[in-house]
Automatic annotation (TrEMBL):
DNA ligase that catalyzes the formation of phosphodiester linkages between 5'-phosphoryl and 3'-hydroxyl groups in double-stranded DNA using NAD as a coenzyme and as the energy source for the reaction. It is essential for DNA replication and repair of damaged DNA. Residues 374-451 form the BRCT domain. SUPFAM superfamilies: BRCT domain, DNA ligase/mRNA capping enzyme, catalytic domain, Nucleic acid-binding proteins, RuvA domain 2-like. Keywords: DNA damage, DNA repair, DNA replication, Ligase, Magnesium, Metal-binding, NAD, Zinc. One of its GO terms (molecular function) is metal ion binding. The gene is ligA. PROSITE patterns: BRCT. The keyword NAD applies. It catalyses: NAD(+) + (deoxyribonucleotide)n-3'-hydroxyl + 5'-phospho-(deoxyribonucleotide)m = (deoxyribonucleotide)n+m + AMP + beta-nicotinamide D-nucleotide. The keyword DNA-binding does not apply. GO terms for biological process: DNA repair; DNA replication. Pfam families: BRCT, DNA_ligase_aden, HHH_2, HHH_5, OB_DNA_ligase. This is DNA ligase (NAD(+)). Its EC number is 6.5.1.2.
Length: 451
């Protein structure tokens, strides 16, 4: 009865009489676990609390990468609302990335689903914030050249956001002369096909490369796409190696007797996988279907916008797509090129999966409306260039910028409005400085994009 009265008091009071802090206190009386929180009107108190938690970071029974500052006034919270990614009334205050020194023992060329070859550094497993890290991306071979990273080098490893490991700095003072330059591959490490070089990237262009097939299928079945439970990277690799699947449609033709021949598969596991595959048919939101196709430059945000136009989106031209908020010519051309060359493939897959297509007037809140990009964003209608290394993947950052109405370019010119400069920024930073272009560091970018 007391609990009911407390609940009534939350609902009956105006937002002006009760704040977020008070709600947390009431929730504690209901038995919810208490975490450290502080109510304050002074920035100094926030900084003091930050330093206090940072010092005690390792004493918590879970990993911390920072804390959240939330506006207490519920009325103001409602007025500020949300972006497509996060609330405008809250922001994260991150801790510095954890660091360790590692020695690069070898570099493995890794093939992605678009065929891009990414160099990955291998080193002795190193404990960092509760995880043993043995690999870290070096992004691309131009980055290796710019940083002059060599085999045998001791480097600084950081775990940004306590999740993504990356090499940030070469400790040249620890070199002894035995270090060896890292060579660019000339042939795909998986299929031995001759590689193509384009700008800073190296590609395997063989569509039958097992690595490309496996990564495309893994993306297709992943949680952010079709979300097929039980069909992860290792199972897909096994199915491809056995010759059971090669294309997306093959997943829907898997048979129980074939699965039972695989190592580690008993009847229950095999049937669960088949049930999981069957469960997405006629139930998958259309934006997930688009995202699962793995179209270059078309990520989750873009897929949700495209889904609003129904299956007619596959017939839209570049000019029409460029009118969608956040779409630039590069994204529009990539989507159109894919549709032009894969019409039968798309139609066949649509017939198999039967994705749920909602009319534009009744798009769910899970989708992003065409006018969702904040019109008051400083990025709206501006040209941006990204350089250096960010804690977020560059393609993801590009997609977020475009959702805010920006056009993302690959080179700095007089037409550039903003240069987003991450760590280890190169010649683009120097050119932007010479041209007097506004330069934003990662902290400023995160604040402006509500990341």
């Amino acid at each position: 009865m007391n609990d009911i009265k407390k609940t009534d008091s939350i609902e009956s009071n105006n937002n002006q009489e009760i704040g977020f802090y008070e709600i947390l206190r009431i929730l504690e009386t209901f038995g919810f676990n208490k975490l450290a929180y502080l109510e304050s009107k002074r920035l100094k108190d926030i900084q003091n609390e930050y330093e206090k938690i940072l010092k005690a970071r390792d004493s918590y029974p879970f990993m911390l990468d920072g804390f959240v500052i939330v506006l207490n006034d519920l009325t103001l919270q409602e007025k500020l609302g949300f972006t497509q990614k996060a609330p405008r009334f809250a922001c994260a205050y991150k801790f510095p990335a954890s660091e360790a020194v590692v020695q690069i023992l070898s570099v493995t060329p890794q093939v992605g689903r678009s065929g891009i070859i990414t160099p990955v550094a291998n080193f002795t497993p190193t404990p960092l914030d509760g995880a043993n890290i043995a690999r870290a991306t070096l992004h691309n071979y131009k980055e290796i050249e710019r940083k002059d990273i060599r085999l045998g080098d001791f480097c600084l490893l950081v775990r940004s956001g306590d999740v993504i490991p990356k090499i940030t700095k070469v400790l040249t003072s620890r070199r002894n002369g035995s270090e060896v330059p890292i060579q660019k591959p000339t042939h795909c490490p998986v299929c031995a096909h001759e590689l193509s070089f384009e700008d800073i990237f190296i590609y395997c262009t063989n569509p039958n490369c097992d690595a490309i097939i496996k990564t495309k299928l893994t993306h297709f079945a992943s949680k952010k796409c079709l979300n097929i439970d039980g069909l992860g990277e290792s199972i897909i690799a096994l199915l491809v190696d056995k010759g059971y699947i090669k294309e997306f449609k093959d997943i829907f033709s898997l048979r129980l007797d074939a699965l039972l021949e695989l190592e580690g598969f008993k009847e229950k596991k095999a049937q669960n996988l088949l049930d999981s595959i069957e469960s997405i048919v006629a139930k998958t939101p259309f934006w997930r279907f688009i995202h699962a196709l793995g179209i270059l430059h078309i990520g989750e945000v873009a897929s949700k916008k495209l889904a609003q136009f129904g299956d007619g989106v596959f017939d839209m031209n570049v000019d029409s797509l460029c009118k969608i908020e956040g779409f630039g010519e590069q994204m529009a051309s990539s989507f159109c090129d894919f549709c032009t060359h894969n019409r039968e493939f798309i139609a066949e897959l649509m017939d198999i999966i039967k994705p749920v297509i909602e009319s534009k007037s009744v798009v769910s809140q899970d989708s992003i409306s065409q006018d969702s990009a904040p019109q008051d964003s400083i990025f709206n209608g501006k040209t941006c260039v990204i350089t250096g290394t960010f804690s977020k993947d560059r393609e993801e950052l590009k997609e977020i910028l475009e959702s805010f109405g920006a056009k993302v370019s690959s080179s700095v010119s007089k037409k550039t409005d903003f240069l987003l400069a991450g760590s280890n920024a190169g010649s683009k930073l120097q050119k932007a400085t010479e041209l007097g272009i506004k330069i934003l560091d990662e902290t400023e970018v995160k604040n402006l994009l509500n990341l």
